[in-house]
Amino acid sequence: MCDSICWVGEHVYLAVTGSEPMAEGHCILVTKEHHANLPSCDEDVAREMLNLRRMLTGYFKAKNNTEPVFITTGLFIRY
Asked: How far apart are CA 64 and CA 33, in angstroms?
């Protein structure tokens, strides 16, 4: 996976996927440390993730006049 990482932030990295992409340009945003889901992340981690999503949206709008689709997956937290 290391060769597919295209951006590394303080808490999050962006990677392209070569294994069965859902669509052209399919990439993944992943936190460096494990979190069950975005709402359970620290504020700094969530902020970086959302800022990266905004940057990607701006990029796709400027380049292709399209918008990316973001799908969030995660686990439910059990108490």
From this structure: 32
Which amino acid, one-letter code, is at 19?
A: S
Q: Which residues pair with 12 in a beta bridge?
A: 31
* 3-55 pLDDT tens trace: 688 899 999 999 987 677 777 778 889 899 988 888 888 999 999 999 999 99
Collapsed DSSP state (helix, strand, coil) of residue 5: strand
- DSSP bridge partners of 29: 14
Which residues is 13 bridged to in the sheet?
A: 8, 30
The CB-side HSE value for 9 (13 A sphere, CA atoms) comes to: 20
State the CB neighbour count (10 A cutoff) for residue 75: 9
Beta-sheet strand order (sheet of 5-8) = 5-8, 12-16, 27-31
For the full predicted model, state whether its pTM sits above 0.85: no
